[in-house]
Amino acid sequence: AILGEKNVTILDQKDDPQYLEKITNFDVVYRSPGVPYTLPQIQSAIKKSVDITSATNLFFERAPGTTIGITGTKGKGTTSQFIYEILKRAGRDVHIGGNIGKTAIDLLPHLNENSISVIELSSFQLQDIRFSPDIVGLLDIFPDHMDVHKSFKEYFKAKSNIAKYQKKTDYIFYAAGNRFAKRIARRSRAQKIAVNPDSINMNLAMRGEHNRKNAAMAAAITAHMGVNPEIIFTVLREYTGLP
């Protein structure tokens, strides 16, 4: 396809098993999160000055309004949905996407300066991120996806990227009881807020200590955004979770 004066090509393993060998033919490559950033062909292309980026980068570069990014090893989807449901009930212009629901760039045409985007971010989306959300929610982090990541160190570095480009006027909410989340928050330039589920008195429709942590994170972030506590606790009491 032709986009303005730019040639746009789609490379897919289904069409050509050797598709990765061709990426050095391009100036800019938008990597799908399912294509590991650490692949030798990707790293070789970077050394040859190919700009390897992603649709997630494009979203954060262009998105107006407030961006909220949620990551962690487990609970990202539930926490993101909690936040979305609370802000929606509060009458905000809120949208959800990323690793859940719509691709983040699909949200762009619907956003304005008053919009709030809740973006669930996986380690694969964060590996080559160049932007950080205005508000970060950092859940518990522990070893996972070790079949794809070379080591926990690499996985941790990917997760750390969510806060790497934050500004002093941004915020990072982190799981107070998790040493890896705490370490990432400490490195961020943003204002830091520890979230302890034991300090919030909640009645949840969903069971389990992990869901108390997810709900506490959602409550802390939405309270910070000025949502009435009554709305927050009503949604937490009624929401039954993702399928």
Main pleated sheet:
6 strands, parallel
Cα-based radius of gyration, to the nearest Å: 19 Å
Q: Spans with pLDDT under 50 lasting ≥5 residues?
A: none
- Listing every helix as H and every strand as E from the N terminus to the C terminus, the arrangement reads EEEHEHEHEHEHEHEHEHH
Tally of extended strands? 10
Q: How are the strands ordered across the major sheet?
A: 6-7-5-8-9-10
Relative strand content:
15-25%
Structural class: alpha/beta
Could you please describe the fold and organization of this structure?
The chain is α/β, with parallel strands linked by helices and 243 residues long. The chain contains 9 helices and 10 strands. It has helices spanning 40-47, 55-62, 76-89, 104-107, 123-126, 152-164, 179-187, 209-224, 229-238, and strands at 2-3, 6-7, 28-30, 51-53, 66-71, 94-98, 116-120, 135-138, 171-175, 191-195. It has a 6-stranded parallel β-sheet with strand order 6-7-5-8-9-10, with helices on both faces. Strands 1-2 form a two-stranded antiparallel sheet. Helix 3 packs across helix 9 and helix 6 (152-164) crosses helix 7 (179-187). The mean pLDDT is 91.
